[in-house]
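From the pipeline queue, job 12 of 40. The input is one protein chain; the requested action is below.

Action: predict structure.
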Amino acid sequence: MKWMMNSHYFKILFLVLFLGPQLRAQTVDQDLINIIEVEKNIQLKKEKEPTYSELEIGIGYGYGSIADYPASDEYSRKSLLLPLVIYRGDVLKSDQEEGTRAELFKSRELEINLSFGARFNNDSDGNKARIGMPDLNYIFETGPSLSYKLWKAPKVSSLTLQIPLRLTFETDFKATEFLGLVFEPELRFQKFNFLVPNLSTITSLSVEFFNQRVANYYYQVENRYATADRQAYEAKPGLSTLSIGQNFLYEYNRFNLIFGATYSYYGRSENVESPLFKSDANTSVFAAVAWFFYQRTTERQ
């Protein structure tokens, strides 16, 4: 499935809707800058007040070191300067609690959302294992996500189970193609006011599964791309990654400081025999700063 759209418009939409909330509250999995997942956000729960910020506008800058692709043995340094939009509507939401999503159902412990995610591209000629192969394009994802609050101590900490299932698409901003499904259940523990006021920390454990087409995208080697050092390989669907992440967010006035690291293990992957599988583990690190210069408040209902 392919479709065309204006490149400039799509880039703006991509940055504002998908990437913007990342710098406001982001947990980082293996691909933090390579894989920007808007649903994986530090959930800042604030005390109820007579009014709240319905709309915030700002700017953010992020920098990180990440693997070129899952199980690669080469890393890239990525940086990003982008506009940020935080919106807290009745249904469509883009905020620091859970990123960009359409809130379909919410109870005290359970939420069902339509969530979004995005992943960076990578130039294959810059990676020894992929030289001569097609580049890895930008990825964006959308799909339902179930969030269940296993335990919560107000203003202190919380334990949440996230179960997202996303449709995955690749794009070079000229054409877009459907890839398949990504399933990544995650358990996350968040601590508020950790050591000092306004510092939040989140520890996450996740497991990621690829369907056939997504596995092909990262690990398959067709006959036409086979070389003496890179044999043809038929990728397999199934388990891809086991990850643990540790992330921090500090709020000071209208500024947010965000930093973290994630360790991802691929030793149990279905595609360890792929010639593109070069490392059993990757470690990603990142830091970001966000400044929100505009705020519109509204009364709570």
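Job complete. The first strand starts at residue 2 and ends at 3.
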